[in-house]
Amino acid sequence: MSLVSEGAELAVRVQAASARHEPSIASVGDYVALMKPRVMSLVVFTALVGLMIAPAHIHPVIGFAALLCIAVGAGAAGALNMWYDADIDALMTRTVNRSIPQGRIMPGEALGFGMTLAVFSVAVLGLLVSWLAAALLAFTIFFYVVIYTMWLNAGRRGISSSAVRRARCLR
User: Among residues 83, 76, 82, which one has the least CA distance to residue 125?
Assistant: First the structure.
């Protein structure tokens, strides 16, 4: 091996290593979209209706804190869902322009963002409202991410992946 080729290989390795430490090119809008705001709005509306028809009086500050934590928890579940489904999102026409498949948000960043939001929302809900409400929020996030995203959609992932592979072979 010559010194030129060794130098070129070293330059490529250094460039790849430094590329891993570059800041994200994601905008605030990318992170908001990662939280699936349309789904969040449905969750917040449902929680608001529950607070309004609750038989006991709820202090408005406690109610607002609960709604905010529920919204952030729903956003965390959405972000974790998008992190897990990033590979299949890159293959589907409807989801190909999302921030993870486009490379604006790295998968590790999405995972960290979702986990941070999840822990924060559950902890704050527990501290400000009640630990029972926090436990229910934690279970909801777990159910959406693990049961719905990872387990129930496992069949869909296999069908979609094989269908995409077959479609590529037909071209």
Answer: 76
The predicted model scores a pTM of 0.76
Mean pLDDT by 10 residues, the chain (171 residues): 43 43 78 93 95 92 96 97 90 88 92 97 97 97 93 67 50 49
Q: What is the Cα–Cα distance from 108 to 42, expressed in whole angstroms? A: 27
Alpha-carbon gap, residue 41 to 160, rounded angstroms: 28
Q: How many domains does the chain divide into? A: 1
Expressed as residue numbers, the domain containing 72 is 28-170
d(CA 76, CA 121): 8
Instruction: Compute the chain's Rg from CA coordinates.
Output: 21
* Helix, strand, coil percent content, the chain, rounded in steps of 5: 75, 0, 25
124: domain CATH number?
A: 1.10.357.140
Alpha-carbon gap, residue 103 to 12, rounded angstroms = 20
Q: 67: which residues sit within 8 A by CB, 6+ positions away?
A: 44, 47, 48, 51
